[in-house]
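S1.2 Input.
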Amino acid sequence: MEAADLGKIINLEAMGLHLASFLCMVNLPLTVLDAQGEEVSLPGLQSPPCLYCSLMQSCAQGSERCRRFRRQAGEQAAQLGECYIARCPAGFIEIVAPIMYRDVYLGLVSCGPVMMWDWDEVALREIMSLTEDIPVSREALLVASQKVAVYDSKKVNAIADLLFMTVSHIA
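S1.3 Output.
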């Protein structure tokens, strides 16, 4: 699979406007990365950051873990030719749409995180154990984790469908 420069092929301003409309509907954080895994800023797209993700990425270990996950998820989505719904290294769900142009992988749009289960002691223990090696305040992570949206599988699949259609329309 080839990779190319996202900004040379895609109208980033149009992409930002389309994703801003999508963002208004789903109210979940969106991140756009190029094929090398570098974040791309889009005109017109002001996605609020996820507090939990910001905490995780505030240290080198967490940042690299998230970056590696998104890069792999984007490549998997490109191979599948559709959105890839995956569990991130922190235990939450991310919806990843590949940005493709004529079978060339340009990057990805990641939507999330979300939880697909109710908060309970088991979920809390699992999320805390997945991040125990991250040097960030456990209390801050706990507080931030409880602000992550909880959606059922039907809604997550609907978001994935809409995200894929939106991204496919742009490319």
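S1.4 Remarks. The chain is about 50% helix and 20% strand.
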